[in-house]
Write a structure and sequence with these properties.
Mean pLDDT: 96
Number of domains: 1
Distance between the termini: 32 Å
CATH topology: Creatine Amidinohydrolase
Structural class: alpha+beta
Number of strands: 14
CATH class: Alpha Beta
Strand content: 15-25%
Shape: globular
């Protein structure tokens, strides 16, 4: 299903996007060495409930997972990259943490992810990988104007990732979003320009470049959810929800301090 949102729904989407961005920034500030992943999940639940919203993950039960997910946020550490299910683990100085959050409020969902290094130790390779996903995300957003095609967005993302020296996995990528978290169209993190669905004003997309330092292969944890690099290397993941407008793409999950 591909949804095209009217102006009233897009206004709600902006509110949901701002909520997601705010929660992620609060969690980033609280995530220090010694923080337990289960505490991050509890903090997330409290903020979502206080906002009168719902996590899209608690009852999430797709065919590829061992559902329901049963947590409020995805927490992926070091070699984990996607669908990191929070468990009893304390963060250490220098850990690379990805927080991926999708929330629904007033019938509209928004989805975003941030990667950052915890504590004082900042491994240069980890910072470079995070920056590569952020640059790829910016490139994908810049390509997502009305009349562009999905392939144009995928190509822009994949070009940045490949030029930075990373292999690109196409099993999981971006997606449409609206009344539900995951919708068509699928947005691979690499592709051929001029191909695929034509973007229209009112379309919402969650774009999410992610990479692993030295592989494109994933393995699944015993929890049936957490996806890790097959080699044990570190990973990074950046994501925004955007709305296609008459003039380009509007980022709905941009933190307030980063807004123009």
């Amino acid at each position: 299903m591909i949804e095209i949102l009217n102006p009233a729904l897009l206004a709600r989407a902006r509110d949901t996007g701002a909520l997601v961005a705010g929660i992620l920034q609060t969690l980033k500030g609280r995530s220090t060495a010694g923080t337990n992943l289960l505490d991050i999940d509890r903090w997330t639940e409290a903020m979502i409930v206080e906002a009168g919203a719902l996590s899209c993950y608690v009852d999430y039960e797709p065919s590829f997972g061992r559902g329901p997910f049963g947590r409020h946020i995805c927490t992926a550490v070091n070699d984990a990259v996607l669908h990191g299910r929070p468990y009893d683990r304390a963060l250490a100085d220098g850990d690379l943490l990805t927080l991926d959050l999708a929330v629904s409020r007033d019938g509209v969902a928004a989805d975003a992810a941030i990667s950052f290094v915890v504590g004082e130790s900042k491994p240069p390779e980890s910072l470079a990988m995070i920056r590569a996903t952020e640059r790829a995300l910016a490139a994908g957003i810049a390509a997502a104007g009305p009349g562009a095609r999905i392939g144009d967005v995928s190509h822009a993302i994949g070009t940045v990732l490949s030029e930075a020296g990373y292999q690109v996995n196409t099993q999981f990528g971006g997606h449409g979003i609206g009344s539900t978290m995951h919708q068509d169209p699928h947005v691979p993190n690499t592709g051929r320009p001029g191909r695929g669905y034509v973007l229209r004003p009112g379309l919402m997309l969650a774009l999410e470049p992610w990479v692993m330092a030295d592989t494109a292969d994933l393995v699944v944890d015993a929890d049936g959810w957490t996806l890790r690099s097959a080699t044990g290397c570190r990973t990074a993941h950046s994501e925004h929800t955007i709305a296609v407008t008459d003039y380009g793409a509007e980022i709905l999950t941009l933190p307030k301090q980063a807004q123009p």
